[in-house]
Amino acid sequence: MAEPRTAAAVPAGRLSHQQILLILSGLMLGMFLASLDQTIVSAAMRTIADRLNGQTNQAWATTAYLVTSTVSTPLYGKLSDMYGRKKFYLFAISIFLVGSMLSGMANSMEELAGFRAVQGLGAGGLMALAFAIIGDIVPPRERARYQGYFMAVFAISSIAGPVLGGLLAGQDQLLGFDGWRWVFYVNLPIGIVALAVVSRFLNVPSMRTEHKVDYLGAVTLVLGVTSLLLVAEQGRTWGWGSGKSITYYVLGALLLIAFLVIERRVGEEAILPLKLFRSPVFNVASLMNFILGMGMFGGIICLPLYMQIVKGFSPTESGLSLLPMMVGVMSVSMGSGIVTSRTGRYKIFPIVGTGVLIVALLGLSRLSAETSYLELAPLMLLLGGGLGACMQTLVLATQNAVPASQVGVATASAAFFRSMGGTFGTAIFLTIFFSGAARHVGDNVGAAAQTPQFQAALRDPANGVIARALRAISGGSTSQLNDTSFLNNGARVLREPFLTGFAQAMDTVFLVAAFVVLPAFLLSFFLKEVKLRMESGLQAQAAERAAAAAAVAGNPAPQVDERTAAQLGTGTGNDERPAAQLGAGTDGRGH
Question: Dihedral through CA 417, CA 418, CA 424, CA 428, nearest 10?
Fold first, then answer.
């Protein structure tokens, strides 16, 4: 392998292209682990829920993962700003693997939800820390140069995930285990490789600073968010205005107010420093991330269900059918990054992206059981394009709006608000979906039951399984929706009320999602476009520390030469090698 360029061959405090690529290899494996898990599980969730007899409770498995990943994200950001990124990235991968192993051992939907929560604790650090590290080593104007590598990760996972998820979930047994359990076990060998690569190559300079960790703030945030999510998930069963629901409303609100009071009191030690909200860019971007998270997760989570339940696709076919959306995300994200790199302008992308997203969601709200895939594919392409124009741009705007020393917590905050929106969106939209499905199916069965064809099919012994489900639904029971595998057989005239009812429920979800995203479109016009920095986070931090040292000494801030900047960028954390050796392995030569 060729020798990496020395510190003198690149601008002060900046790593060479080869050094960045070595670091990226570790980051991409971690991101691949997280993104592959999402696509595998989403493609296999219907099969998993059917096997565990918990179709209507599947939101717990999704929201438990999102809750823990959401609330742990700002803690990763804060701690990595204080003590360095590497140790926490390794910790995140390790916890993710433990959660994966436990999830594969689940015997009920409740157990799966608990183990997915453990998995989410690790996932909270994988994406956020990866983008924070990129913010450390690559200037905002140059990030498009490396954006293609991340898009390749998402492209591979978007193709491999559905194929693997469908293949594994479709196996009755594989090496002595139920096939669906390998949806989680497949993470283990990938994660072990990721741990090895990250341990060797992820050597980013850090400066250890002594701070107190805001554990009390973290606890109140977890409890507050969980209380509100319990209502979002169980409100349909409890009654939205019941005493139990109101108790959790009040408890959640009080805990979140307590969280804000604690964050204000602890000041700089907060896991979500309130001074970040002094930045108009941070405020607008954070609110947009929250809204887009609701629309993105809430809307997208229903597409695989539509493909499998209504269109009869296998898990593999369902996952692959989402490729137009992935193409939209990747192509527009890469294109917007290149334009931003060349022009330094980015405000137009969230405006256009949210507008396109609303159009796509409105189009999806007109689905029916007879909608062809050729009609659906362009709408998914638009949906992906809208998301691709917004996601990376809002992270970039957030990182650029804060001091370099707070890039970690700011990046984690962006992921936090997006995940928070996604968590609420998932719980709320799945509740809307299953409530609507039960209501529409009941109405459709009542209307169809009057026809002679329906009555004849109902008496046919070959249709016994679906006939029993129909009678239960007609009697007001929704337990039959816990296992929808009965829709794989039976006369079309008996299945039609179910298929149409599910499609009608999907329409409601997408229509609500379109109205949810509308405020983000309006907010995008208020996103202030701040000139993008030309220096990396390491360079900016070196300059900040030099200026602070000069201020303490009572002298004007000195110009930082290359050697000084390289030394300042090294810090006193886990890795004390000069910038020339960073990312080049243990011997400094990349071997």
Answer: 150
d(CA 99, CA 102): 5
- Report pLDDT digits (tens) over 531-589: 776 655 555 555 666 666 666 666 554 444 443 343 333 333 334 333 333 333 333 33
Radius of gyration of the chain (CA): 25
Alpha carbons 303 and 332: distance in angstroms, whole number: 21
Q: Is the pLDDT of residue 272 over 80?
A: no
DSSP string, 67-80: HHHHHHHHHHHHHH
Helical segments of 401-491, H only: 407-448, 452-459, 464-474
- Which of 58-62, 285-289, 313-317 has the least mean pLDDT? 58-62
Calculate the alpha carbon distances from 297 to 292, 293, 562, 583 in Å.
8, 6, 45, 35
Annotate 194-205 with DSSP letters as a single string: HHHHHHHH----
The per-residue pLDDT for 233 is 65
- Within 8 A by CB and 6+ apart from 312, the residues are 487, 488
* Per-residue pLDDT tens over the stretch 153-187: 776 776 677 778 777 877 777 887 888 888 899 88
Q: ∠ CA(295), CA(397), CA(281), 5° rounding?
A: 85
586 HSE (CA, 13 A, CB side): 5
Distances (CA, A) of 169 to 43, 189, 193, 368: 9, 18, 24, 27
585 phi-psi bin (left φ>0, alpha ψ -120 to 50, beta other): left
Dump the DSSP string for 226-251. HHHHHHHHHHHHH-TTSHHHHHHHHH
DSSP code of 307?
I
The most confident of the ranges 313-322, 390-399, 512-521 is 512-521
483-486, long-range: CB within 8 Å, 24+ apart, which pairs?
483/49, 483/50, 483/53, 483/55, 484/46, 484/50, 484/55, 484/309, 485/50
